[in-house]
């Protein structure tokens, strides 16, 4: 039985575990080919902070574009299991980049994470000549080992990002993640953490407080979709979604929450039919700013991207 502090590394696949036929190929690879234990074994001596043991578990092996509700539930339950263990200092999750920000925000809202839960990733496969995954994994372990670390964060390219603001902003470069005008929480420099902002506060949401029997027992998730407002938008998409039984709609609105008149009219009809509506902005930086003299018709997802607003609406409908 392990009797010293432990960092748990949960693998879910992604590019960090991907392989290609040639070391110079950073695009034509297959994601989720190597186990999380293999990734850890490849780090070599010195990667693990002194006095900390490692425990690896393969929760899934997928390309993160295919992330789904069942895996979110399984991942959250494994996190909760380990966070309750006194000797576990924190958790690292290896994850694909495509939906990493969504998984991070989901976990932030369902885990009472007084300990760190660190998602990390790679933009190049494990077989690349200059793979970025090993350094990202080492940096994530350094964050877990920090005595004051807490909450759900993302580590990539030497930066630490909070779950609320982080977004993938580039399809190719190694520093593919950004937190917009909020900026990163901190940086990892030669294994040392330099923080610029406070650690995230664990969620006070209903799921994080009552935690996992209810979430683990969910048989069916609400259907929530994202629709976008743009020049020439019509009612057709909303009408089709309502006819198909959608239960919630998040609007990726233009600017400061504005919605094309045809789309807005369709959303009014959807609300009358019992569909929940939440408004986010399609702008990648900043957040919606309500005007005192103009109360929005629908709730605004302040400071959330449309995909993260969708997660909030999912959890609200579950509650």
Characterise this structure.
The protein contains 9 helices and 13 strands. By secondary structure, the protein is an alpha/beta fold. The chain has 2 domains: 190 residues, Rossmann fold (3-Layer(aba) Sandwich); 98 residues, Rossmann fold (3-Layer(aba) Sandwich), CATH 3.40.50.40. The strands form 3 sheets. An 8-stranded mixed beta sheet has the order 2-1-3-4-5-6-9-10, sandwiched between helices. β1, α1 and β2 form a beta-alpha-beta unit. The mean pLDDT is 94. One of its GO terms (molecular function) is asparaginase activity. Pfam families: Asparaginase (PF00710), Asparaginase_C (PF17763). Belongs to the asparaginase 1 family.
Query: Counting H and I runs of at least 4 residues, what is the number of helices?
Result: 9
- Helical residue percent? 25-40%
Tell me the distance between the termini.
39 Å
Strand order across the largest sheet: 2-1-3-4-5-6-9-10
Q: Which term fits the overall shape?
A: globular
| Mean pLDDT rating | 94
Which structural class should the secondary elements be placed in? alpha/beta
Q: In the residues, how many domains can be counted?
A: 2
Biggest sheet details: 8 strands, mixed
Strand content: 15-25%
Question: Roughly how many Å is the radius of gyration?
Answer: 20 Å
Q: How many strands in all?
A: 13
Order of helices and strands: EHEHEHEHEEEEEEHHEHEHEH
Indicate the CATH class of the largest domain: Alpha Beta
In the CATH hierarchy, the third-tier topology of the largest domain is known as Rossmann fold
Low-confidence stretches: none
What is the architecture of the largest domain at the second tier of CATH?
A: 3-Layer(aba) Sandwich
Keywords: Hydrolase
GO molecular function: asparaginase activity
Protein name: L-asparaginase
Pfam families: Asparaginase (PF00710), Asparaginase_C (PF17763)
């Amino acid at each position: 039985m392990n009797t010293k502090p432990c960092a748990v590394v949960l693998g879910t696949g992604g590019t960090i575990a991907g392989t290609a036929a040639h070391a110079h190929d950073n695009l034509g690879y297959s994601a989720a080919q190597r186990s999380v234990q293999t990734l850890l074994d490849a780090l070599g001596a010195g990667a693990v902070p002194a006095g900390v043991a490692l425990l690896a578990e393969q929760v899934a092996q997928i390309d993160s574009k295919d992330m789904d509700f069942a895996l979110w539930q399984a991942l959250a339950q494994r996190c909760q299991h380990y966070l309750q263990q006194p000797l576990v200092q924190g958790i690292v999750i290896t994850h694909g980049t495509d939906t990493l920000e969504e998984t991070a925000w989901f976990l932030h809202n369902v885990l009472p994470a007084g300990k760190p839960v660190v998602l990390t990733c790679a933009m190049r496969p494990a077989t690349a000549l200059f793979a970025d995954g090993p350094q990202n994994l080492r940096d994530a372990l350094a964050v877990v080992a920090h005595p004051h670390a807490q909450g759900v964060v993302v580590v990539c390219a030497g930066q630490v990002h909070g779950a609320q603001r982080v977004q993938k902003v580039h399809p190719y470069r190694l520093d593919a993640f950004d937190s917009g005008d909020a900026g990163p929480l901190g940086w990892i420099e030669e294994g040392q953490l330099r923080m610029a902002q406070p650690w995230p506060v664990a969620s006070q949401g209903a799921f994080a407080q009552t935690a996992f029997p209810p979430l683990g027992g969910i048989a069916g998730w609400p259907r929530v979709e994202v629709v976008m407002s743009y020049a020439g938008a019509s009612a057709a998409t909303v009408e089709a979604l309502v006819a198909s039984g959608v239960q919630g709609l998040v609007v990726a609105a233009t600017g400061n929450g504005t919605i094309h008149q045809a789309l807005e009219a369709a959303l009014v009809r959807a609300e009358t039919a019992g569909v929940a509506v939440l408004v986010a902005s399609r702008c990648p930086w900043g957040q919606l700013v309500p005007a005192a003299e103009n109360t929005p018709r629908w709730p605004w997802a302040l400071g959330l991207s449309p995909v993260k607003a969708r997660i909030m609406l999912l959890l609200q409908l579950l509650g």
